[in-house]
Structures are given as C-alpha cells and as structure tokens.
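Possible regression after last week's pipeline update?

I re-ran a chain I had predicted before the update to compare outputs. Posting the input and the new output here so someone can diff against the archived version. Not blocking, just want to make sure nothing changed silently.
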Amino acid sequence: ARAGGRSRWNGVDPIYLVKNAELMKTLVDFYGFDPNTFKIDVQLAARTPDDQRPKRLYFCSKGVAELLKADAEEKLKIVCAGVKCFERQDKDADIPCQYRLAQEGLQVTLPNLTKQKVVIKLSEYAALLEHRAMPFRSDETDTATRVFCPQSIASLIAANQGCCVVLPDMATAEEANLPAASASTAEDLAIVCWLGKATVSLMVSKPDAALLMDRIGVDRSKAYAKPNPMQVKRDEETAAQAEDAPAADATKDADAK
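New output (post-update):
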C-alpha cells in the first residue's frame, strides 16, 4: 500500500492464494476435510497475505486458482473471486481452529465435511432458529433436558468446541408437526453454529433464520411467544441464589453472636 493508506490497485485489493500449510492443516484436522477431494491447499484465496491472518478465506475454481498463480506480478485487478467459506473468529483463543464456516459457503464445504456435524430433532432445530442460543448440558437437573433429547445432546457433546454445522433430523418432521419441512433436505436447512462448553449459538443472521423458519412452516407469530430456555435457566439460577442468600445471612448472624 502507498503512503496515506492508498493502494496501488486503486481501491481494489489483490487476491492471494493461501499457502500457509499450518493454517490449512488446522482446517483439515478440525473439519475433517479430505485434501484429495477438497483442494484447499491449491484453491483457497484471501484478500490479504496469509502471514497476516486473513479475515476471510474464499474457495475458488481450479481455473481461477491457476490464473492467480500465473499473476506473479499482481497486475490483475480482481473485484471478486470464489465463495466465502471461512471467516476468522477470535472470540476464544482455546478453540483449536480460529476459522469458522461461512453460511453462504456451505454448499461448497458441507459435502466435504466429515467432522463438526451435529444432528438434532426438527423441533429442536426450529427452537434454535427462534431463540438463537440454547443450553445442551445433559445434567438431569438442568433446564437443557427439556430442550434437547438425549440423542441430540450426545451429538452436541461429541463435537469439539468451536464452529459446527447443525442439521435437522428430517425423520422427526411429523413429530414436530412441521409437514412443510418435508419439501427440503437436511442439507438444505443446514446452519452454522458455535458450540461452547454448554451452549450452542446460532451464527446465522436474524433475517436468514426467519426465512428458514418460514421454509419449514413455523408460525413465527406464535413461536416468539414461547419462553427462551436460556432466560428460563438464568431466572432459575437467580431464584436459587435468592433462596440461598437468607440462609447465608443467618449463618453470618449466628457466627457474629
């Protein structure tokens, strides 16, 4: 870049092929990609050099990758290339992979994904779209047991913390009383989520979540009247703390005497 922040590409940033072997190994190990079929080692690109930890990573066609490779002097002004498949997520340094999947790139990444796939019941999927974050701990005294079934909890726990793809079990459409969902496949309804130690959170925009709810036939005018399980959990914890407070105060008074 020139002095004053002006680029020699006149506002069009260059596109670089990603060559960082460590970064690509992290993606392969975390998401279970097969580098023989999903060529991220030769078809992944970014707007900034990979030694600067690019914010977004794009998967481009083989032809575009070859064109970028041939443009050694960076004379091409490429406005856009490829599909955004990964985005850097710096919220938790303990997560082994700092790049989350991009919702718009799932058509490219999902068929190649062998890890970080979570399957839940369709009714749970609809609730997640509505509330955007829900607990999944399997403790029998936890509110989460009233949200996710044991099979869904096991699927959530089996995945590593960090980014995952949540898919609805379409065999539970009739049970969920959402017959409209049968017009879609689980892959059509796949959503990118963030898996914490005890909570799964939606990483899809609210408008996109609303469209998915409409697609499976959720009546949103009724859906949003349901209590948020996360808020229910917080209310229960607050109530428990309030009950414990008088007992603690009584103990202090007794000790003082």
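Follow-up from reviewer: compared with the archived run. Confidence is low (pLDDT under 50) at residues 1-7. Marking as no regression found.
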